[in-house]
Amino acid sequence: MSHVKVTRKDSIVDDVEQMQQHVARRAYELFEQRGSAPGGPWADWFAAEREIVRRPAIELREEHGAYLVSASVAGIAPEDVHVEVTPEDVVIKEETERIHASKDGRVHQSEFRTGRIFRSVHFPGAIDAASVQAEYRNGVLTVKAPIAPPIRAARRQPQVA
User: Fold this and answer.
1) Which domain holds residue 104?
2) Could you tell me if residue 20 is inside a domain?
3) Is the dihedral of CA 150, 16, 91, 69 positive or negative?
4) Which of 19, 47, 125, 158 is such that its CA lies 20 to 30 A from the CA of 117?
5) Number of domains in the chain
6) Which are the contacts of 149, defined by CB distance < 8 A and separation ≥ 6?
7) How far apart, in whole angstroms, are the C-alpha atoms of residue 148 and residue 101?
8) Contact 83, 143 (CB under 8 A)
9) How far apart are CA 116 and CA 124, in angstroms?
10) Contact call for residues 118 and 55 (beta carbons, < 8 A)
11) Which residues is 135 bridged to in the sheet?
12) How far is CA 135 from each of CA 5, 74, 83, 141, rounded to the nearest angstrom?
């Protein structure tokens, strides 16, 4: 079992926007390759997403006062996985580059691809982001996010006139 570094952030908006911009640029390239013909913008977008982003299968469950997120990230070194948390979300990221060196012989078929893992998960309730832990074991990343205690509003004392 390997521990994975967890980074705390205020928001995941920048990460999501950056990924969307990357996909949009590739979708536009695909549009241009089609000769800029009208029609098919969604097909271009989905094709770009498939090329660029791998969304690992996840499970989100609540257990013993914590949310547990399990993500299938087999074939990735634990030190290459990046986990970012906010009080409401977790983002799992990794960038993969697959290079076949000529000294390795001739590749006849390969389904390994260069790309990115990017998966965001929104928690059903607030978490204690400072206490989140992540571990990697047998190709599964598990993020344990303790549920934050409920915030109680301060009671106002009635003022006597």
Assistant:
1) 2-10+54-146
2) no
3) positive
4) 125
5) 1
6) none
7) 49
8) yes
9) 26
10) yes
11) 3, 142
12) 9, 13, 10, 6
At 29 the three-state DSSP class reads: helix
Residue matched to tokens 């390997």 = 2
Residues 6+ apart with CB under 8 A from 118: 15, 19, 53, 54, 55, 91, 92, 93
Residue 33 lies in a domain: no
The answer as to whether 138 is a domain residue is yes
- Write the pLDDT tens digit of every residue in 27-85: 889 888 888 777 778 888 888 888 888 889 999 999 999 999 999 998 888 888 999 99
Instruction: Give the list of residues 6+ apart from residue 27 with CB closer than 8 angstroms, or none.
Output: 41, 44, 45, 47, 48
For 114-126, write each residue's pLDDT tens digit: 668 899 999 999 9
Closest C-alpha to 123, from 94, 91, 151: 91
Quickly count: other Cβ atoms within 10 Å of residue 143's Cβ: 24
Q: Which residues of 85-124 are buried (b: 16+ CB within 10 A; e: fewer)?
A: bbbbbbbbbbeeeeeeeeeeeeeeeeeeeebebbbbbebe
User: With helix as H, strand as E and coil as C, how does 62-130 read?
Assistant: EECCEEEEEEECCCCCHHHCEEEECCCEEEEEEEECCCCCHHHCCCCCCCCCCEEEEEEEECCCCECHH
**What CATH number corresponds to the domain at position 77?**
2.60.40.790
